[in-house]
Amino acid sequence: MYFHALIPFKPVNPKTRLSCILDQEEREAFARAMLEDVIAAVQKSGCSATLLCTHPFKHENALIAVRKESLNDAINWALKQFHCPALIIMGDIPLVTAGDIQRLIRTEKDMSIVPGRGGGTNIIFLKKPQCFRADYYGASFLDHMRIAGECNFSVEVIDSFRMSTDIDEKEDLVEILIHGKGRKSREYLENSGFSLAIDEKGRVGVQRDAHKETL
Ligand SMILES: Nc1nc2c(ncn2[C@@H]2O[C@H](COP(=O)(O)OP(=O)(O)OP(=O)(O)O)[C@@H](O)[C@H]2O)c(=O)[nH]1
Ligand SMILES: C[C@H](OP(=O)(O)O)C(=O)O
């Protein structure tokens, strides 16, 4: 099955929750590295990618739409253009694989959805995108389930560690370092001096070697 994937992407000053460990230029490079991982999985799954960008951006393997409005308004504008099923996938879930995406698009329901940790929504697959309305931020998973109900959609909720792992906070980098073999995002972190650190209570975190060069 061949579908179109919509990937919202903010190339300028992204991932501000990582400002404690990455400066703006580094966050922009890291966000691009995560995006590469997501686009690679999307393409391998047989879908084409359109980036819904806040600012001008170029990518050789994706179409670009630049939309200055808010995330929800931009996505809702895009959904109206779809005449076939659509996938909305966030650019900050670098552990996703092509097989994971195929699991979503093979659903027998009207919609499949992957929650993000902490109440968010990481991926939505919609057979009838024109009927739906995106409502990201806050407890968006609950909001999207409610909106699906209003649309009378049957829904499959997909339980997946890799797809539910969105990279928002410093602690989330642990997951890339542990599970991100072969990913551009892991390469970026390693080349930027990040490694795992285990504290005195046995908790796993990340540390940064200040002497390493960033990419
Ligand atoms: N088109 C568009 N994409 C956005 C916008 N805000 C965030 N995104 C993208 O949506 C996805 C999830 O967003 P967030 O997790 O909030 O990322 P972020 O805004 O870069 O991170 P924070 O500054 O830490 O909130 C990422 O792929 C972002 O690049 C926006 O206003 N418009
Ligand atoms: C866009 C937002 O992302 P989060 O801030 O939860 O990563 C959401 O999933 O509603």
Automatic annotation (TrEMBL):
Phylogenetic placement of the source organism: Archaea, Methanobacteriati, Methanobacteriota, Stenosarchaea group, Methanomicrobia
Highest taxon above the source species: Archaea
Reactions this protein catalyses: (2S)-2-phospholactate + GTP + H(+) = (2S)-lactyl-2-diphospho-5'-guanosine + diphosphate
Entry-linked Pfam families: CofC
Record flagged with keyword Thylakoid: no
InterPro entries named in the record: CofC, Nucleotide-diphossugar_trans
Organism: Methanoculleus formosensis
HAMAP family tied to this protein: CofC
EC assignment: 2.7.7.68
Keyword Acetylation: no
Name of the molecule in the record: 2-phospho-L-lactate guanylyltransferase
Assembly with partners or alone: Homodimer.
PANTHER family with a match to the protein in the record: 2-PHOSPHO-L-LACTATE GUANYLYLTRANSFERASE (PTHR40392)
